[in-house]
Backbone:
């Protein structure tokens, strides 16, 4: 099978992705059920911070297959793989299912995506908010005061904003899930989501990602405004859930 023959894609498949996919198809053989390209590159909105994201669905998972995949990525940076068996997908938790439903470019095979439900979407938002709250509040209280533990001040100056950039990406996933709870179509790109938002803080979270190259230096001087904004957006989103508005 020629990689990229299945399905349609809005953006050209990079040569590196084609090469990796071909290697995976050859190495995994009949054990490979499906291979899917997703994430910011597949959506055509990658930044300098973006990895190539792959979902690898195996007939079964065993040590040899995992080690075979490890070998293919041994000398490659800038990649992120999510490996699941068909059985694991059938037993998938109620949260985290959106990633299997939207923004996928099929490169090989077929798979049955775990089904979404309003309950699962609400729990997705709560879980994302819980994790983002923890990271924001921990950073505010402890994250800039770890030099005494052997972490250099320069490392923390760069690391903390980068970690909040990642939290901003998770917050965007929560905002996209809210659109589905409201009965709307899923905004696959940040541009699609931006056109639906009016809240200043929510738009600022999108800016933190879209304008990262120009905003990064300011966040490296003081990341507190971004951290507080992320925490506030997540508080408000959960409050909407509790009020019953998104459902």
Residues:
């Amino acid at each position: 099978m020629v990689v990229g023959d299945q399905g349609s894609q809005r953006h050209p498949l990079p040569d590196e992705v084609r090469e990796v996919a071909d290697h995976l198809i050859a190495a995994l053989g009949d054990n490979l059920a499906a291979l899917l390209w997703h994430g910011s590159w597949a959506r055509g909105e990658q930044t300098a911070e973006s990895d190539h994201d792959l979902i690898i669905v195996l007939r079964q998972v065993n040590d040899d297959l995992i080690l075979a995949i490890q070998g293919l990525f041994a000398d490659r940076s800038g990649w992120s793989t999510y490996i699941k068996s068909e059985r694991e997908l059938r037993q998938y938790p109620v949260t985290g299912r959106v990633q299997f439903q939207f923004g996928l470019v099929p490169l090989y095979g077929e798979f049955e995506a775990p089904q979404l439900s309003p309950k699962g979407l609400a729990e997705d938002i709560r879980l994302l908010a819980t994790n983002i709250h923890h990271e924001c509040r921990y950073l505010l209280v402890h994250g800039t005061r770890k030099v005494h533990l052997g972490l250099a001040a320069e490392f923390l100056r760069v690391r903390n904003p980068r970690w909040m950039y990642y939290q901003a990406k998770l917050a965007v996933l929560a905002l996209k899930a809210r659109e589905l709870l409201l009965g709307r179509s899923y905004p696959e790109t940040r541009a699609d989501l931006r056109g639906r938002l009016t809240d200043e803080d929510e738009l600022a979270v999108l800016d933190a990602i879209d304008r990262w190259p120009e905003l990064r230096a300011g966040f490296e001087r003081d990341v507190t405004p971004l951290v507080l904004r992320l925490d506030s957006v997540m508080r408000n989103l959960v409050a909407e859930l509790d009020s019953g508005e998104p459902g």
Notes: Strands lie at 32-38, 52-58, 79-85, 105-109. Residues 1-8 have pLDDT under 50 and may be disordered. The chain has two domains: 15-109, 118-243. The first helix runs from residue 15 to 28.
